[in-house]
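no rush on this but wanted to send it before i forget. theres a chain ive been looking at and ive put its sequence and its fold in token form underneath. please have a look and point out which stretches look like helix strand or loop to you. thanks a lot i owe you, the record is right below:
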Amino acid sequence: MRRSFCLKFACAAALAGGLASGLPYGFVVAAPPAETDEATPAAEAAKPDAEPAAPVSPELAAEVRSLLRQLDAPELARRDAAEARLLELGPGVVELLPGASDRLSAEVRQRVERVRGKLELARAEKFVQPSRVTLKGRLKLSAILKSVAEQTGNTITDYRKEFGQDADDIEVELAIDNVEFWLALEQLLEKTDLVLYPYAEKGGLAIVSRDVPAATNPLRRLAGVFRLEPTQLVAERNLQDQRHSVQLRLAIAWEPRMKPLALWLPLESIAGSDNLGNVISAGEPGNLEAPANPGTTAVELMVPLSPPPREAAKITSLKGKLTALVPGRIETFTFGDLPKARDVEQRRAGGVVVLEQVRKNNALWELRVRVRYDETGQALESHRGWVFENAAYLLTPDGQRRVADAYETTRHSEQEVGIAYLFEVPEGLAGMKFVYETPTVFLKLPVEFELGDLELP
């Protein structure tokens, strides 16, 4: 069988070194973990799946235990009522539900998994809702950025030094109370005369000083976790056939904690008018697609428009509907008793991770993993590079992480991927756990927008 490979560390020297050290042929050397300082609360909050764990009250734990017993009651009405009540309690009870390995009757197991699936899906859908910010009082910029990261998981880095600009830790008076992230950020930028730089190297947003003072761009539009900004209108005339065309450059940013895989704009959704009442539509049929590369927080689309007459001065209204393919929150799958593990399956929401086999491979340990998703929304078709960024590591008895030294893709389909990870563990796997982290739900979010007052060139 022919296998496909994915470079995680594109370095010929490292690959050669890995082969020289005895890695099996075909396995790709994985990137070594970056040297970082001790994790700060802000850094922890910036993780994609950051969500403070609410403390579980003894009363809630007791109620869940009682409801679990009722799931096996003789009366159907009591079983249905108990299942409905577990759903009412919300995603916070997921961790209180028994695992697949617990001894349960067939009926209880079926109902528990049904409840778990619905609650985990609700948790994933909550994750893609706009985060909110509260900032009150006179605060320094550094404290503001740290607080935003802790509240939302969105990292914003001050890039003024990188741009050779004055980077004083200015103070700002704010009165932001439970406001959506983008709106709060707009208020901060307006008060500090800063602008966004959406290409920070570490995958978050960055801020820099304006080149020239300017008011907040009134053309920007906010749509949930997304921020849309028309940045350019270009009119062209082909002198050979006298065709006239107009293109709108549209910048689309998202909350940095989000990891959209791609955005689509069906051109048939474009509808608008100019100041003379003429209809404006897309200049051509089809779909525009913008893949979201790992580490970026924005993309640009060039939207073709039907050219208005020369007499028109502006586009007064332009509507459209984007679709964003967004993974939900990261779920963690933990496997123990590794020396005996074989075809151990765990499910979270819409995903299943199977630890198929653990075996010695020369001097290394090989762990074969299969990941299957109920619905991917094309996430494993043309946009599958993300799957190789999923965290996969061994957890030692003292809590230390050991990342894989190499990996190989063993299978791939529209809804499933198989990966073999190699670890150098001379002391063996006794007492260790294998941890795999992945989103299990992929949502197609509709992003409706309306732009206006676009001055024509």
